[in-house]
Each structure stands twice: as C-alpha cells, then as structure tokens.
Specification:
By secondary structure, this protein is an alpha+beta fold. It has two domains: 103 residues, no CATH class; 83 residues. It is 37% helix and 31% strand. Strands 1-7-4 form a three-stranded antiparallel β-sheet. Strands 6-5-8 form a three-stranded antiparallel β-sheet, with no helix packed on it. A three-stranded antiparallel β-sheet has the order 9-10-11, covered by helices on one side. A hairpin with a 4-residue loop joins strand 9 and strand 10.
Length: 212
C-alpha cells in the first residue's frame, strides 16, 4: 500500500482536508473483521454443540447479543470501506458536504476520509483546450490554451472542467473583440479562469477566416 505524500496546497482559498493514512485504517479494518467473524462463529459453535453447558441450556440472551455484536461490526466494516480512496500524485481529492467546501487532499497514495462527505477527484496535470470564435466579416480567432487546476476549492461549482474552460476562453474572446492585443486577451482569460480555480500556463491566439 502506498502512503500518501504531503503536497502543499496551491490555491489561495484551499485548506487541508481531513484524512487518515490508508494503511493504518486498513489494519484496524482487518482487526474488526476478525472480531466480527469470531463473535458470529462463537455463537454458531454454541448452537451446534447442542445448546447445553454443564447440563443446562445456554441462555438465548448471550447468543442474541453475540450475533448482534457480530453483524453490527460487519456493518461498521462496510461503512469504513466506503472511506478509502487511492490517489495518484497528479490528483487531488476535494471534500464537500451539502455544497459546502470542506478541504482538499493533495498527493498520491491510499487514504481514508469521512465516508459521509462528498468526495471528488480532480486532475492536476496540464490540459489543453482549443476554441475558435467567429467575428463579423467571416473573421475568426483561434485560441490554444494550456491550463491546470490550481484552486480546487472552486471544484464543487464546476461540473466539467473541459467545458467550463472552453466557455471561459469563448467568453474572453468575445469580450476583447477581434482586434484585441494578446495582453488584453490574457487579462480577460485570467479573470474568467480564476473564477473556476484554473490558471493558464501557455496561451496562443491565431487570427483567420471561418472555414465554409
């Protein structure tokens, strides 16, 4: 099992989310499984033995309690399993509850988090999006933008990063117009991408004509 590496948070509004190293919880999980199965098997053996101890019948109460304890522990084991997540080094896990941002976990490895919280994996590697925007007079501008997610605290408001980034590029091109300078486009793009926690790493804009 991989132990999660500590990776500093990057976005200005990010905060560290709660997690426990996965191998530690996995060991506790195994212990619970053995205790649960031991409790159930003990009851089963008592019943198979004829239900008598020293000439008297075994009380139903201890048997019932043993079964209840065993099955409750198994339910707890299943619940704990829901909290495990395996992260690559280029991924972050964003925690939220009821639409409220709770924190971010960065770094690779096996981790365990609260199974009742919503958890979303976000890719941190560099992506590339290309958008062609038409202008009047059959003119167009094509923007090639390399980008990456830097502020994962905004991830709970972004359904699909690819679509949101393309929309931000489209809005930026429409805002600055066909005759804008690269500086004007970059300023507009930075603003729009910042709203979804994304930063551009390379921007290229080409002018041309709309293909018929």
């Amino acid at each position: 099992m991989q132990v999660p590496l500590h990776v500093p948070l990057e976005g200005p509004t990010e905060k560290k989310g709660f997690f426990i190293k996965g191998p530690i919880v996995a060991i506790a999980e195994v212990v619970l499984v053995f205790v649960a199965l031991g409790s159930i098997f003990t009851v089963a053996l008592a019943r198979l033995s004829g239900g008598s101890v020293e000439g008297g019948s075994v009380s139903a109460a201890p048997i019932t309690i043993g079964l209840v304890i065993g099955f409750v522990l198994l339910l707890i084991v299943l619940l704990i399993l829901r909290g495990f997540r395996l992260l690559r080094s280029d991924q972050a896990l964003v925690l939220s509850s009821g639409g409220r941002y709770l924190g971010t976990i960065r770094g690779g490895g096996l981790i365990w988090t609260n199974p009742f919280h919503s958890r979303r994996k976000v890719a941190l590697h560099t992506h590339r999006s290309t958008v062609q925007h038409p202008f009047a007079g059959m003119h167009s501008a094509t923007a090639d933008v390399s980008w990456k997610v830097t502020d994962t605290s905004k991830a709970i408001n972004v359904a699909h990063y690819d679509q949101s980034v393309k929309q931000a590029i489209e809005d930026s091109l429409s805002q600055v117009g066909a005759n804008a300078s690269p500086e004007q486009f970059n300023a507009a793009l930075t603003q729009h991408l910042g709203e979804i926690g994304v930063t551009s790493t390379k921007v290229e804009v080409r002018s041309g004509r709309i293909a018929l």
